[in-house]
Every structure is written in structure tokens, then in C-alpha cells.
Amino acid sequence: MNRPYLIMLPGFGMNSCVWKRISEFLWKDFELIFIEWDNIDLLDGFKQKVINIIEEKQLSSFSLLGWSLGSLVAEEIVLDNLWNINNLILIGGTSSFIQHKEEGYNLGWNKRIVERMKSQLYKNPKATLFNFYDSLFSDEEKKKGYNTQFLKIMEDNIKIQSVDSLALELDYLIQKDLRNKLVDVNIPLLMIHGEEDRICPIEATLYIKNILTHSNIEVIKSGGHIPFFTNPHDCYYFISKFIKKHL
């Protein structure tokens, strides 16, 4: 029997090497398709890149796994309601990366901080990215050396990142707000979130759960923003259990 397709959408400043630890498990159950955020020059280009792959491979059905920035792109694809999408999986997900304090939504970053990060990227891209990468991990994970391991892996990755491309990713995070559209997500949804996530606070996932009560949440104890790197086996177990439940 053919394995179902799982399209994997990474976060800001990442390429598909970030999935290595969990993909070793996921290959058992899925045909994996990795999306890269290179060569994009318009805000709509993130969603369009995924659509191009769907059309190029003529996928009749598939599931989406979006992490961080990728969670917003995955939500956009689902909300288009144009494809037969089996399942939506969000890791470290959100419906709005930016705070909207005027509406009482404080579950994200202040826009000014992201704008500052954008200007820092142009001055010193490597230091800016490495500071961000370090913040992906909880204190508990840092004690175990996961941040050091990750920085070594990303050394090669940074060299191929265009600063303009990274800045566009930050623009996407600033501008994309899907909170009012969430109610239209009508497929099985699993959200995996680190308990100590400093990038997208766990409350951002609970916000989605309050709107989409049919969704499932799995929390990684003492986990940061990248639990599929620090806890790949646990994340795979949650995904596998969820998929089997919705076959």
C-alpha cells in the first residue's frame, strides 16, 4: 500500500535539514515532501510555493505539518479549501505571531521587536540568526546541550540563506493574522507544543483550541520551540497515534 503524503513546512531561517531527527521516524508512515523557503520574493509566495508542489506532484490527498512560520502557511492552505487534506499538524504553532494588544491578544511578539530583528539581520545576519536559534530551546534543553548540537548543524545552513529572503519571512510573520479565519478549519487538527516555548507561547495553541474544540493538543514537558528536534520519538508517537485515529 502506498504511504500517504506529508508535506513539511519549516520555520523562519530554516531549511529541511531541521527535520532530520523526526523524519527518520516519519518515513515509516509517510511519503515526506520537504518545502524550502528560498527564492520567494512576495508575501503570497510562501503559500504559492506549497501550491506549486501540490500541483506539480498532482497530489490527490495529503497531510500538512507546519512548524512556527510553517504553521501559518499550513493554515492558509487549509483555509483555501481547494484540496483533499487529510490532517493538519502544527508544531509550535500560532494563528498570529504578532501581538494585537488593541484587541486584547498578547500571545506573541511585539511588532517592534520583529522590526528590530529585521534591521539587525542586515547588519549582522549570522549573529542575529544564532541568537534566534539559541532561543528555540528551553533552559532544561540547554542543560542537555541541545542548543549546541543544533547550532553545529545550522552552521552550514546559514551560508545559503539570503538576507532579503529572511527579511521577507519576518514580514510574513508580522503581517499574517489568521485568528478570525480559524473557525473555518474543518479537518482533523493536532497541535504539539513545548511547555516552555519562548517563541510561540503555549497560550497561542490554547487560543486555537478554544476556537477549534475538535482539535487535539499534546504538550512536551519542559520543551522549547523545537520539540521535534529534542523529543523526536515523543512527537512521532503523538503524530502516529493521531493519524491512526483519523484513518
UniProtKB/TrEMBL annotation:
<dbReference type="InterPro" id="IPR050266">
    <property type="entry name" value="AB_hydrolase_sf"/>
</dbReference>
<dbReference type="GO" id="GO:0016787">
    <property type="term" value="F:hydrolase activity"/>
</dbReference>
<dbReference type="InterPro" id="IPR029058">
    <property type="entry name" value="AB_hydrolase_fold"/>
</dbReference>
<protein>
    <submittedName>
        <fullName>Biotin biosynthesis protein</fullName>
    </submittedName>
</protein>
<feature type="domain" description="AB hydrolase-1">
    <location>
        <begin position="53"/>
        <end position="232"/>
    </location>
</feature>
<dbReference type="InterPro" id="IPR000073">
    <property type="entry name" value="AB_hydrolase_1"/>
</dbReference>
<dbReference type="Pfam" id="PF00561">
    <property type="entry name" value="Abhydrolase_1"/>
</dbReference>
<keyword id="KW-0378">Hydrolase</keyword>
<dbReference type="GO" id="GO:0016020">
    <property type="term" value="C:membrane"/>
</dbReference>
